[in-house]
Amino acid sequence: MSLILDIAWTHVRARVRQTGFAVAGVATGVGFSIMMAALMQGSQDDFTQRLVNTLPHITVTDERRTPPLQPAQRYFDAAEIHNLTPQARRPGIKNPLATIAALDAWLPGRVAPSVKVQAIIRYANRDVAVTVTGIDPRREAQVSDLPKQMRGATLKALYRTNNAIILGDRLPEKIGTRIGANITLQTSQGARITAQVVGFFHTGVRQQDEGTAYVLTKTGQILAQQTGLINELHIRLNDPLQSRAVAARVENDTGYKSVSWEEAYEDLLSTFLIRNIIVYAVVGAILLVASFGTYNIISTITHEKARDIAIMKSLGLTEFTVRSIFVLEALIIGLVGALAGFVLGYLLCRALGAVRITNPFIDSNYLPLAYTYVHYLLAGVVALVSSVAAGYQPARKAARGNPVEIIRGAT
Amino acid sequence: MSALPQTEPVPLIEARNVTRILPGVVPTTLVHDINMTVGDNEFVAITGHSGSGKSSLLYLLGLLDMPTTGEVLIRSRATANMDEAERALTRLTLIGFVFQFHFLLPEFTVLDNVMLPMRALGHLSNETMRERARALLTSLGLADHMQKRPDQLSGGQRQRVAVARALANEPPLILADEPTGSLDSHASEQVFEVLRDLVERQGKTVVAVTHDLSLASRMDRQIELMDGAIVGNEAMRASG
Prior knowledge:
The structure holds two protein chains of two kinds. Chain A is α+β, with helices and mostly antiparallel strands. Chain A has two domains: 193 residues, no CATH class; 167 residues, no CATH class. Chain A has 16 helices and ten strands. In chain A, strand 6 and strand 7 form a beta hairpin. Chain A is elongated, with a radius of gyration of 33 Å. Chain A starts with a helix and ends with a helix. Helix content of chain B is 32%, strand content 26%. In chain B, strands 6-7-8-3-9-10 form a six-stranded mixed beta sheet, sandwiched between helices. A four-stranded antiparallel beta sheet of chain B has the order 2-1-4-5, with helices on one face. In chain B, strand 7, helix 6 and strand 8 form a beta-alpha-beta unit. The two termini of chain B are 36 Å apart. At the A-B interface, helix 1, helix 13, helix 14 and helix 16 of A face helix 2 and helix 3 of B.
């Protein structure tokens, strides 16, 4: 063993209690940092996963990013014309089958057509506004998790009767309906149909579960009062993280507004950045406090060992060697503390992961935690760096001390 | 045909007009205008009353402290311009220190303490260092105490361990600051004999600060200080 390591190890080993407290300080900092990071990233990942799975990765609507030029603007660009009523456009995606076929040719995923209509459900003298989506169950199964989210029935139940409807499972709480009940759907355009409830679905996102209903495409078109209408294309990608780029290409190819899930939830996702800054600030503060413990122990050791330092220097050890001894002691405390912190962090994560909790907005049985080596690596590196930084100043001060003053004081 | 010029022996250590003033609101002069030389194989006592500057002079000679003016030369080599690492290396290879209190590292065994300067120098293999440390301790009558810690030894034994540590790198010069100051008369005599043995049998040079005039009178030369200045420098007996 090298002389520096030998002396450093002997010093920290000789002060079991003090070293233990310093190590415990670092370990606590590292452990709780890992736990917080795991909790924060876990909840973030869980939330993102739900967002990704609940909605199509890309939704193509029959809108455009910029309003199309009106005929008057197109033909009389030199003239300024006021109070013209824009030319009415027939709603829906033009030639939807050809569009779907074109997308199917290159899309790294699947596409399904749908009709989205805003309607009011009337049942037992109660009115609830919902978004009714007309779908092709076979194609929809390829672009969403709806089949897995069904409760008490399958998507095929939509074929069971005319005007069958599947409701989010929070709607029955509002209107008191159950499977087999006949409800009335009415739109703002005056369309009105009676539909039979054939099943419920549960996404875990409250907004969806209490405000969405699914019918067959044909039923949706009846509600929209337009035969053959397709006003949305739902796309599911093999890799959800490509949604922005693919949405841009779809929009470029079709001319219709294509919104990726990332764009749809941009505000929400941007809050993650702020949250992460807060998390890492808190984690940094915890480790900073832990480093005070290291500073304290190294200061104490150097103070207690002032005489030994003077003797080592009188024997011929250089300032660098003496400084290295105490920096190494800080490193040992940091290293042992980090390793103990890894174990503590893992155990804390396991303990937190066993806590059952229910969120009023997103159902979750257990706290979601992310287990990744990155958290351990990050906390470990910060702990080591802060320990060395904490140990350096007292080590430097001790190494630069005048041995004569200490020897005189000792005698 | 002219005769060859007679060359003077190079002194082992030399102080030229050395003055050390401690800075402060009221500057304190520790030693003033010291001129002295110590040759090889000398046993020199530095005596004087408390506060006369004995230890300060020893620290200056041992490069633990820097003169405010003047210079210390070792083997005619000026030390004033040495950097910290050079001074440390000089102490490690040419000078061995023995203090009034043993100043052994308490957590280490006797053997480890003696090996410390050799390990710091790093020129020898682990086995060679161990063998040399064992031989030194055996020669000082500590063969049975090698694996003990300092607090398990008597005062005289600890001081002999300190001597062994000072000799670890085989330096030509041993500087001892009141080496018997904290010992009873029996242990004092033992340590004194060890130091004299170093001079007489091993050819070392020992410069020892002491206030014990009876011990000083048994050394080769006595340099007496008063108020930081040399007031006496006389040979006590023929060197050996």
